[in-house]
Amino acid sequence: MQLVTYGINHNTAPVNIREHIAFNADVLPAALDSLNQHPNVIEAVVVSTCNRTEIYCHLDGDYDNAISLWLHQFHQQPADSLTEYLYQYEGEDAIRHLLRVACGLDSMVLGEPQILGQIKTAYNQALNANTLGKSLGRLFQHAFSVAKQVRTDTAIGNSPVSVAFAAVSLAKQIFSKLADSTALLIGAGETIELAARHLKDNGVGRIIIANRTIEKAHTIALQVDGYAIGLSEMPAHLAEADIVISSTASQLPILGKGAVERALKQRKRRPIFMVDIAVPRDIEPEVGNLEDIYLYSVDDLHDIIEENIQSRRDAAQQAEEIIDTQVDHFIAWLRSQDAVPVIQAIRSNAETESDQLLQKSLKQLEQGIAPEQVMNEFARSFTNKLLHEPSRQLRQSGLDTDNNLVDATRRLFNIKD
Fold first, then answer.
1. Active-site residue, 50 included
2. Residue 413 has pLDDT above 90, yes or no
3. Which domains, from first to last, does the chain contain?
4. Which one from 30, 50, 179, 358 is the annotated catalytic residue?
5. Is 51 helix (H, G, I), strand (E, B) or coil?
6. What is the pLDDT of residues 376-393, one digit of tens each?
């Protein structure tokens, strides 16, 4: 029996390959059921995200390429068409891989926390499908615990490494209470949507989305309890904004020095924090020369992000050390499970011998034999029965000049020289 991982991710395959073998929520129950019926599969968990598809299995028998073949067949892919993109880990390597994935060390964005939630979802789906057993169940619980330890003991998730997250983090440094602040977001692309979500998650007071196409602005505004305006309305709302984040595809600046000066006058010199993520820039560079304006360009944010990435790399080294230790702990647990059936067999044999001798002793008592004699006979016979086979094996090992069994017996019975 072996723990094995088969997978494909953003490092090994482009998106046009990954999308062919993704398991969406509709198909996943059928996939788990199919895996559960596979002759080599004892347990299985499927993790499927936009960046990776991985199958964690506890396998039995001759399983060489078994899951790879199943993956091709399930997704109706030509034989071996995915082979160059797939990776496979076994035993200790499979354990280490899951722990690294759960801690965000194998993610596109180093240390990102979303993957842990996705793994927990995969675990619950396998639990509901009855494809989890003792080994994989324990491994995934161990991965959750290790990920929590890494988050607690290292700075892997402390530093923002996306432009939107970095912008919001800077805003938090300037405005201690975002709940009292209004944010004006200009544009309706992915970065603006992400910034809007970060601002909402951090408790910003109000969010205004301004865009040339107001319908797109309205779509984002609905997600964050904000409201949408057209670009033509932006000057009338600029004075309300404590935070301005702009990311459009305009070829010319859409926010000039004059408009900002008028807004500052209305605000009675209360500061405005501005982030211009666009290339070409949306905000005239001269705006940065105004008093009470804190203007950051995309290059400024990239410098911050690069520093934070290095900070995460340093933390990742600490995380790898934690993972090495925790892999050893899990392997020790696996080895301890090998002893369980042996212990059960020893106990079962002892109980059988004990029951047989006890019945014999009860009959002797019924026949009137003295209790002391019966007890002595029971103790002597029981000792001989328990130690006969171990004694024979030890004598044989001495004849074979095999000291390993003798040494093991000393440890087993804690016999001192």
1. yes
2. no
3. 2-153 (3.30.460.30), 163-306 (3.40.50.720), 348-412 (no CATH)
4. 50
5. coil
6. 888 888 888 888 888 787
